[in-house]
Amino acid sequence: MRILVARYKSSSEWTLSKVYLDGDFECFGLEDEKREVKKMHETRIDEGTYKVTLRTFGGHHERYKKKFPEHEGMLWIRDVPKFSDILIHIGNTEKDTSGCLLLGTLVNEKNGTVSGSTIAYRAFYKKVLKAIKAKEEVTITFKDIETG
Fold it and tell me: What domain count does the chain have?
């Protein structure tokens, strides 16, 4: 399975994207802003392709395991240079990202927020989990396509 995060709009605080699964639009994404020098919990990851696996430890995992019956582990973006513990999870503003990718069904391009995050996450998670359990390689590509 191939996940594409096509970043199309950003500010000094946030980055918005369209997220695709195997070429089909799935939802919107929200990340921190781009920085030339990484600042912990406040920087989006660099463009590139990374592997996605399940992470079955940590605070997010424990909370989601209690909240969602389908939860079997966090979606973990692996081997990102200068980053660790990058997850895909629920949230609405750049304050919720901490360098991770948030998902939403709707986007507000004026203030850089997403809504419908739980709905988007659960639908996305179900599809990605199915691929992981089927032993498919799951990759995520972050691509900057901003036009101005």
Answer: 1
Contact between 71 and 45 under an 8 Å Cβ cutoff? The reply is no
The C-alpha R_g of the chain, in whole angstroms, comes to 14
Domain of residue 65: give its range: 2-144
Structure tokens at 54: 């399940």
For residues 28 and 41, give the distance between their C-alpha atoms in angstroms, rounded to a whole number.
20
Digit-by-digit pLDDT tens for the chain (148 residues) are 999 999 999 999 999 999 999 999 999 999 999 987 787 778 899 999 999 999 999 999 999 999 999 999 999 999 998 888 999 999 999 999 988 999 999 999 999 999 999 999 999 999 999 999 999 999 999 999 975 5
Pairing type for strands 2-10 and 139-144 reads parallel
Tell me, yes or no, if the pTM score tops 0.90: yes
Report the C-alpha gap between 43 and 27 in whole angstroms.
21
